Amino acid sequence: MALPPPDPVFVLRGTSAAVHTLHFSCGGPEPDIPLLFSGSENGFIHVWNLKTHRVDTALDGHGRKSVYCVKTMGGKDRLLSQGRDQRICLWDLAEGRTSVTDSVFTEHVGFCRCSLLKVAQGRWLMAMAARSLEEVQILELPSKTSVCTLKPEVGAKLGMPMCLKLWQLNCGSQPVLLAGYEDGSVVLWNVSMGKVLSQLICHQEPVMSLDFDSEKAKGISGSSEKVLSIWSLNEQQNLQVYKTHELVNAGISDITIRPDKKILATAGWDHRIRIFGWKKLKPLAVLDYHTATVHCVSFSDHSNPRERLLAAGSKDQRISVWSIYAET
Amino acid sequence: VCFIPGGLDCSISFVSHVLGKVCVHGRQKEILGVLVPCLTDLTKSDCIWQRICWRLVECVPDRWMEAVVLGFVQRTPGAGVLSRLLGNLVVKNKKAQFVVTQKILLLQYGHTTAVLQNLLGYLSLDGLRRTLLLRVLQELLETWSSSSTVKHSPVEQQLYISKAILICLSHLKEPEIESCRQELLTSMMEGMKCHLDSSLPKLRRLGMVVAESISLKINTEGPVLKFEYEEDDETRELKSLLVKTPSFCVVPSLPDDDRSEKAGAALPLVPESNEKSRTAAPVVPDEELDAELDSDDDLIPYDMSEDKELKIKAPVYIRDCIEVLTGSRSEDMDKWEATVKALESLVRKNPAATREVSVELAKILLHLEEKTCIEGFVELRQRAQVAVLTTDPIPVAKYLTSQFYSLNYSLCQRMDILDILVLAAQELSCPKFHKKTKYSGAQKPCIQLLLGSDSSKDWRRIVDERIKSKTRRFDTGQSRVELASRPNEFSSVAGYFFFPLIQHFDRPLTTFDLLGEDHFVLGRLVHTLAILMYLAVNTAAVTAMGKALLEFVWALRFHTDSYVRQGLLSCISSLLLSVPTEQILADMTEMLLETQSWLGDVMEKDPDGDCRRLALQNLLLMENLKKKLEAVPS
């Protein structure tokens, strides 16, 4: 007899707007408070204290335009946020400050979240959708110099880039970019040369979100249709479809694989969060708490595995926090 | 009959005379049944015999030429054979030309497709004759595209002409098409317009098929005309005529063997490819079975039985439905869809609540447009409308019939109104229509499904049981299940459905003129009235309805549209079936006698086959009526 799915450990209320993005920062040593950053539709970034379950700070840096991506850059003192005001802001939050130190004007009017990759101490690569319809720009941060622009060939008709993931196999190797596009295809780009390494049509509808496991060279993408597509990268750097999984209801907003690569979580338009085993995509749980589309899911980076959490942000303005499969 | 190549001329003309006389007396089958196969064989390769044959037919006197030519055309097994037998008779002989190019094609229409193939194929096989072919095509197109033909000639004739056109087109060559492209185009446009204007769906389809075919021929590259219609046997047959059939169609021996050999060769290939695809399939599952033992197994899944398809909840109250349907909030498309789907059952479950807002709901539904793509939207809306109308018939019927004659509705909406009235009338008048969930009135759970006042039935049940318990039964006999009876709900509202529709038909509005352009809607209206009349049997208003209907029919009896006339004749049938005979006798005898003479006229002279049939039916009904009256002892 299977157990009924667990309830959320706690629910964070108080954003007063739909939650579009979440990011944990719990890896710091003991006196540091575990934090959760959330970006909402009203332009605020809330910094949640996971001990008191209350908002510590609210950051207003995007002119009340929706914030759809927040990431930390090496610790909780440096934050990057991306909003619908076409800007990416870099924040300095050390010692209680709340100031924007720098910003990048992307001129991107879509919803494509940027992707960060640490290449060296204090140096980052950021992939973001640019002004031109099909292009992806790679910038180096904090210098904001352009590394390259990834333009698909003329007539490729990929549409807008919908989701990005920068990764490198290990510290010294070439950074590569996986990009999911509006026409349903996932493209692997070689960043330094700016060329397409491989392209695979995974879906009939736009790719909404993707995540990649560089150890197993396997990735997963979700779309507005009912199918999750799992693909792998072989030695020749070619993408091929590994398997597909059909869902009960159509529409996935976000997919994320837990850092230990054991499970993954999907955020669905049918208000449900689904947990799968990563190895064989075995369905493990369906978490049904929210009353509107779930926009984002995120796993925490706790160093103690037993404390690991999963957070989900939804259009119903709540953030649900779950502890699931934390013992394994 | 055996001929010596020597003294041929005299003998042949004698034979021609014999042939002609026999044919004209109607014995074509006998003589040509022998002559044609004989001549076919003889003329196959022998030129002399061919010339003999030609001489034979050319010498037939003019007064018998028609019979002979017709006989030949009907009996030869193919256009090639006909060409061999008749030669250039049509060019040389005026009478033969008239018969072939005019009489068979334009003045008669009873011949089979094979005859047409023969004839037109024959015309196409010789250079001299091809000019005739073009002329024939022109005349056929002229007839096809004239609006008076479309309106007044029988459907069978129009089908015949269409077939002839298609066969002609199949025989035309490129340069010929080039030369008459402009005329083809003009005729096609005109003909298409006339055919699409017609009220009979069969004629519309016929026009579409022919227009498509003509367009295919004249636009060899570039976009071709394409209509959307349901394919059926007739359209497929017509389209197949466009493909040129080989001139030797019915030849028994050799070609068949070739064909069957090829067919035999084709068959072994097919099973091979099947096998190949089957061997490919098993490879893939093997790979999947190769899975490693993984540490995922220690992740125990939770119970996921609640994970089902997401269903948006529809509102539970009628007033909520009204809010959703009239609301302008574009986010709630899911809710709007769910409301449309759930509306009919909600209306039926809550008759009291519906009655409070019935007219408003009817108004909303009449104007409801499809906002998102739901499957079966039109049917859902119609069922909801019927449900509203049957729940609160009188006010909603008043509303709908008044809107039928109002400004600024589309033809589609007006016809929707007619459909809803008919469906609702059917539901209200039919006793078998049991709705399981309804009747908020006090209903004790009884064994019998009798609705209506309960108390009067109770005593009967008690008495029955008492009698049953006191009587000894020897044999129960077959128990007959009695149909549960219901009061006829249509009785009280039939008038509200019927009279407003019939009232204003002769008053034209700026956007709606029943007696003018919108004769299609008039046809639908007349059919609706016929159905309402039929359903009004056993109601109190039936006599008044009958009288009004009779006058209505009388006013419109000479309408030019055959669909309208069919409707009028259905009205008479319904009338004769629904109005009780005594009432007919009492109030309507004079009008019916006049109607009878009109029906006789229709039966003899109306060009439309269906009209004639309906008129005959009506006359039979009237005869039955008379017999019934005579049978009753007065």
TrEMBL record, chain A:
Keywords assigned by UniProt, alphabetized: Repeat, WD repeat
Protein name: GNB1L protein
Matches recorded under InterPro entries: WD40/YVTN_repeat-like_dom_sf, WD40_repeat_dom_sf, WD40_rpt
Organism name: Acrocephalus arundinaceus
Gene that this sequence comes from: Gnb1l
UniProt cross-references to Pfam families, sorted A to Z: WD40
Positions annotated as WD repeat: 200-241, 287-328
Keyword Nucleus (UniProt): no
UniProtKB/TrEMBL annotation, chain B:
Keyword Nucleus: yes
Every TELO2 ARM repeat domain range: 129-225
Family of the protein in this entry: Belongs to the TEL2 family.
A GO cellular component entry from the record: membrane
Keywords: Cytoplasm, Membrane, Nucleus
Name the UniProt record assigns to this protein: Telomere length regulation protein TEL2 homolog
PANTHER family: TELOMERE LENGTH REGULATION PROTEIN TEL2 FAMILY MEMBER, TELOMERE LENGTH REGULATION PROTEIN TEL2 HOMOLOG
Cell compartment(s), UniProt: Cytoplasm; Membrane; Nucleus
Domain Telomere length regulation protein conserved: 315-425
